[in-house]
Amino acid sequence: MNDFIRPQPGIMDIELYQGGQAHVAGISDAVKLSSNENPFGPSDKAKEAFSRAVHKMHRYPNTDHASLRQAIGEVHGLDPDRILCGVGSDEIIHFLCQAYVGARDEVVFTEHGFLMYRISTMAAGGKPVAVPERERVTDVDAILRACNKKTKLVFIANPNNPTGTMIGLAELERLAAGLPKQAILVIDSAYSEYVEGYDGGAELATRLPNVVMTRTFSKIYGLGGLRIGWGYGPRAIIDVLNRIRGPFNLSTAQLDTAEAAVRDQDWVNRCRDDNTRLRAWLAEALAEKGVPSDTSTANFILARFASEEEAAGCDAYLKTEGIIVRRVAGYNLPNCLRITVGDEPSCRRVAHLIGLFKAGRTA
Ligand SMILES: *Cc1c(COP(=O)(O)O)cnc(C)c1O
User: Fold this and answer.
1) Whose CA is closest to 348, among 286, 305, 298?
2) What is the pTM of this model?
3) Is 214 helix (H, G, I), strand (E, B) or coil?
4) What is the CATH number of the domain that holds 295?
5) Which of 94, 109, 160, 219 to mutate to test the pocket of ligand 1 (most atoms within 8 A of CB)?
């Protein structure tokens, strides 16, 4: 290394992403409730498609993702020509920043917004602008006040991670309508399938010229390890993003598995129903033990403790008992723990242990 070899401005200011912890030293069968994964995994049809893909590994994948886009379009009632598939929705977020954000351009998101918005903004040389929420709920007026002629993108996760709260379609539409002309509203719908009857912003992205929706196979579809996501929006924007997409960004295994997964909506509906039931049970059990949370619309609960010390202490205690949850101090929520809704035994166990901890009976 010499002084002349330097990355682009802003890159060295990016803090490395810390994923949800996956292991506890000395415990082989820890229960992982730290990454909002589907405890039941993907549908059997998705697993079968993945197994079949093993016979095609020597062939390059197709580059236009036509078959997967067709399936997504049929299931969601969307025009396949306005869909773009990527390596997780992370890659769609990255494409948006790369294509629309330059040096000193601004990208707006909420204070407890997903960390990838900041990372991708800075990777493109842009300036991240974090806007306060109102009691952990997206504040459309605060976002509109933060926008100016340098604003290129506004990211809203709805439902939001890590708060679990969401705003309605009317609020989203008001936000889109109020943005400066050069700005795109990106509705990150990673958790939208958990909300019965909610289209994730698809109709807005169909009708409005400045709205893009992103979706993922990592959450309710149970395919986080395979890395598949998609975006949908105005034809002109999708055309821009396709120009910077690598032609072989998705493998045959990813494409075939995702297609089988999206066509199995029975599995999605079952997972949503289970999540709704267990989430309500867990939130109430924790509240009874003195740990409140906002009403969650996603597959996790943001549990609020009395202090940062108490949250850290509970996190450490759960680890000794083989349960991994997510500290969210990096999201400016130091007194909270984000707990993924697991299967029923995991929900019961985490509630029981937090009860013991709150009662001071952990020795
Ligand atoms: C998990 C998550 C995603 C999904 O990212 P992938 O790259 O598709 O795995 C996107 N946005 C938010 C807010 C998330 O929590």
Assistant:
1) 286
2) 0.96
3) strand
4) 3.90.1150.10
5) 219
